[in-house]
Amino acid sequence: MTPAGSDGAAPAGLLVGVGVDVVDVDRFTAVLARDDARGGALRRRLFDDDEAELAPRSLAARFAAKEAVAKALGAPPGLRWRDARVRRGEHGAPSLELRATVADLAARLGAGAVHLSLSHDGGVATAFVVVERAQPLPPPPLLPPAPEVP
């Protein structure tokens, strides 16, 4: 599902979009290790200070979440990685905090609730994001039937 129709208008319905991403944990860990040896610029570009100190497996899942929310919002250019942050609720459930560029786009698209599911298995981190519309849009008006041609 895309967040905008072919004419750029938001589609009718209950959802803004759905996004999913998978990250190979070993590959992501190797990328972070090379980056750390060079000063950690990539880690700082992708993650806030409180996120950056987590284990590579957790960072892989957070990166997948950032990718998934971008996809759910149509993946336009100009989104900043650090503007989507994964938070843990009281009982450990993940949620997304949208800020600045990501929050602005979500608002323009009429987003309401954002749902996140994370999983790690078999060396792969997976994120699934559903972005609901704040107010469901009515369906477009039905067009009258085309006249019959003799």
Brief synopsis:
Helices cover about 35% and strands about 30% of the residues. The protein is an alpha+beta fold.
Compile the SSE list and pairings.
Layout: E1 13-24, H1 25-37, H2 41-46, H3 49-52, H4 56-72, E2 84-88, E3 94-98, H5 100-108, E4 111-121, E5 124-137
Antiparallel strand pairs: 1-5, 2-3, 4-5
Helix pairs in contact: 1-4
How would you describe this protein?
The chain is α+β, with helices and mostly antiparallel strands. It has one domain: 4'-phosphopantetheinyl transferase domain (Ribosomal Protein L22, Chain A). Helices cover 33% and strands 31% of the residues. It is built from five helices and five strands. The chain has a three-stranded antiparallel sheet. Helix 1 crosses helix 4.
Terminal residue distance: 39 Å
Corresponding CATH superfamily: 4'-phosphopantetheinyl transferase domain
Which residues form runs of ≥5 with pLDDT under 50?
Answer: 4-8
Q: What portion of the residues fall into strands of 2 or more residues?
A: 25-35%
Shape: elongated
Spatial extent as radius of gyration: 19 Å
Key structural traits:
single chain, about 150 residues, alpha+beta, Ribosomal Protein L22, Chain A, 3-stranded antiparallel β-sheet, elongated
